[in-house]
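Work package 3, deliverable 3.1, input record:
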Amino acid sequence: MSEAPVNPGGNFVKTVPEGDNRQRQVCADCGFIHYENPKIVVGSVVHFEGRVLMCRRAINPRKGFWTLPAGYLELHEMAADGAIREAWEEARARIEIDTLLAVYTIPRLSQVQLIYRAHLRDKAISPGPESLDVAMFTPDEIPWQEIAFPSVRWALGHYRDSQARSAFTPYSNPEGENGDF
Amino acid sequence: MSEAPVNPGGNFVKTVPEGDNRQRQVCADCGFIHYENPKIVVGSVVHFEGRVLMCRRAINPRKGFWTLPAGYLELHEMAADGAIREAWEEARARIEIDTLLAVYTIPRLSQVQLIYRAHLRDKAISPGPESLDVAMFTPDEIPWQEIAFPSVRWALGHYRDSQARSAFTPYSNPEGENGDF
């Protein structure tokens, strides 16, 4: 899962614009009101022959740690298409979506994560520019000590729990967990 | 479902920032790069004693038409909490979430909608500032000719379809539909 680049430019101050009821970031130079909204992350637990696809991050945060193929939904993109695109960009994996596995909210980051259960269309995978390495792990091989983010751990657990089911309510944050380390 | 106010200020031109691979809105005055992201709408089909809650819109777009309580997720807010907040703001309704009913994508608007199935905690409802009127409708009373948005129609149909089920995969856009009128 990737982070947006830091925004350069803008001379922002926090103030309540006229007619609004919340503080917003307003540029003191040009007057632009930057409405900040939660962001949507789309990703997938991709399985094939009893293994799941993981990517070792080539970028910060958590460079060198293992994650699932996931990233920000783009403008005008269907959510499932975004998950398919991220699997290609990060692992050169061609995937097919099975079902929606989980909807997580990370309030600290203002992220809603839509995580799908998917499978490989063919065996070929290789690292994209944001990955140092990609691998298909059996449950015993998953590097649990080197997982990049709490929600990756949740998704892998929820995937395992879901394997016997065809229709289910998507999982959400484990009780009391908000994604902080 | 409400719209964000139009952003005043900013003298934006579309250009590809250094190190990026997509066109972004960049302010010619202050250099701020305005990354645009899809937005998350949270809402609910709220039932009670065989009826569902609807709100008649007091604001454009689609003023005077009937909708479900829904709106943009705020920063740092859990998705289900946002749906609870919107039911209060638009219908002064105190609700409890049952389950996630549907995840819709409206690519034209770059919206992902998380629609919950919920129920009233008590009977009291009244219009909030964005509603002209609120009502609890039986299936026969729903004003099908005066529905504000296609996704409201989808959600009502999916709610009806879901009533007999306790655990199910959330519904998504009906086949071939993208939310355009």
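Confidence is low (pLDDT under 50) at residues 1-6 of chain A.
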